[in-house]
Amino acid sequence: AYKRFSELLPKEERENACTARVPKSQILTLPELRANPFQHRICHVFSTSEDQDDSMSFEDFLDMLSVFSDSATSDIKSHYAFRIFDFDDDGILDRKDLEKVVNCLTGQEEESGLSNTEMEQLIQNILEESDIDKDGTINLSEFQHVVSRSPDFTSSFKIVL
């Protein structure tokens, strides 16, 4: 992990990799993230940058690797997946978050190709399946409940470096 992290730094900074920060643009060059539709959200969630530039320290990088590893528990994976899907960082998945998730998953950042009616029906179906307290949003515990019923979730939520 240290070798992969330091290789993302310019040669002159590699000696100080433990204290350096890798810019988001370099993190996104990792083959494992390059094709991930949530690449920008992953960098945002794992970055501890005070500048809010989504750069990563070596510790941030290790945190990301550990969450996406096979040994991470389903609870940890689902917690971070929830944070990644929570585009406005407000602690709930509302209709706007769900629409962005669908657009990312369909490869359409702006337009999913779904009509407004189709998008609304899909979001309604997601909420009917997940929104246990019927408040129109999905909180972390509701999300984790849904994930617990999906055995494929943990195997699909990984990055191998």
Which features does this protein show?
EF_hand_dom, Recoverin, domain 1, EF_Hand_1_Ca_BS, 161 residues, magnesium ion binding, 0% strand, mainly alpha, single chain, 2 domains, elongated
CATH superfamily of the largest domain: EF-hand
* Number of β-strand runs: 0
Average pLDDT level? 91
Shape: elongated
> What structural class do helix, strand and pairing data support?
mainly alpha
Number of domains: 2
Strand count, sense and closure of the main sheet?
none
CATH architecture term of the largest domain: Orthogonal Bundle
CATH C-level class of the largest domain: Mainly Alpha
Keywords: Calcium, Integrin, Magnesium, Metal-binding, Repeat
Organism: Merops nubicus (Northern carmine bee-eater)
Protein name: Calcium and integrin-binding protein 1
GO molecular function: calcium ion binding; magnesium ion binding
Describe the structure.
The structure is a single chain. It contains ten helices and no strands. With 161 residues, the protein is an all-alpha fold. The radius of gyration is 17 Å and the shape is elongated. Helix 6 packs across helix 9. The protein has two domains: 1-68, Orthogonal Bundle (Recoverin, domain 1); 74-157, Recoverin, domain 1, CATH 1.10.238. The mean pLDDT is 91. This is Calcium and integrin-binding protein 1. It holds the Pfam family EF-hand_7. GO terms for molecular function: calcium ion binding; magnesium ion binding.
